[in-house]
Design a protein that fits this description.
The chain is of the alpha/beta class. Helix content is 22%, strand content 17%. It is built from four helices and nine strands, in the order αββββαββαβαββ.
Length: 232
């Protein structure tokens, strides 16, 4: 299921995730990918996935709590729930500006880890940081690197499989190399040796995107993934 732009309301996110979770057969894998804005909950103890129609007056009612996503996935019969959240819970945009006036007093605490041992949770940044794009490219950095890593980019030992540890090392290493305009520390929850992806696709030369335009005026850009990115 792929939701984009105006389709991403709080009700639709919950409805489609619930329907998908119910369809997963025992032993299967449930995937949930969210790429968008986030904010802290009113008490700062949870994260919000901000829906497309959320505004200052209804931010807390027109968003989906991270804990609700974890509750829905935990109720499924899946052997694993793979959750990728390319968002941050600081309530700020990719430039560091607050999403709506009035969020400044909110302080996001360190959000507790998932209690479901079947849940593998990847998040773009710590709760007090903000997630942004790849330098030189209008493309969310975290989901681009993580989804690419699952296709084989993060396979450090060349065995065709990608573990939680390999994916974490790959993403954090490239963030250190590529991102210098903000502090963004990806977080990974799950057994380090668990295989979360398989593939032989070689990593493209992502370092090129941080180089300045050459003498011809061309600006390096990141290559495009061959698969759609959204929520499933």
């Amino acid at each position: 299921i792929l939701l984009r732009d105006a389709e991403v309301t709080a009700e639709t996110i919950q409805q489609k995730l619930t329907e998908t979770a119910r369809r997963v057969e025992p032993g299967g894998t449930l995937w949930f990918v969210f790429i968008g804005h986030g904010a802290p909950s009113r008490d700062g103890k949870d994260g919000l996935l901000v829906a497309v129609d959320a505004q200052k007056s209804n931010l807390f009612t027109r968003s989906v709590r991270r804990s609700e996503v974890l509750k829905i996935t935990a109720a499924s019969r899946a052997a694993q729930s793979m959750i990728i959240l390319d968002t941050c819970f600081s309530g700020r945009s990719t430039t560091g500006a607050y999403l709506v006036p009035g969020l400044q007093p909110l302080v996001a605490e360190e959000i507790p880890a998932s209690t479901d041992s079947r849940t593998i949770l990847f998040t773009a940044a710590r709760s007090d940081e903000f997630a942004g794009p790849l330098p030189g490219a209008d493309r969310p950095a975290f989901s681009y690197l993580v989804l690419g890593g699952l296709r084989g980019w993060a396979d450090a030992d060349g065995d065709g499989s990608v573990t939680v540890k390999e994916l974490g090392s790959f993403a954090r290493g490239l963030f250190t190399t590529l991102v210098s305009d903000r502090k963004q520390t990806p977080t990974f929850e799950g057994p380090p040796d668990l295989t979360v992806g398989r593939g032989w696709e070689k990593r493209p030369p992502l370092e090129e995107i941080v180089l300045p335009p050459d003498m011809t005026g061309r600006t390096p850009v990141a290559p495009v993934l061959k698969c759609p990115v959204g929520m499933s």
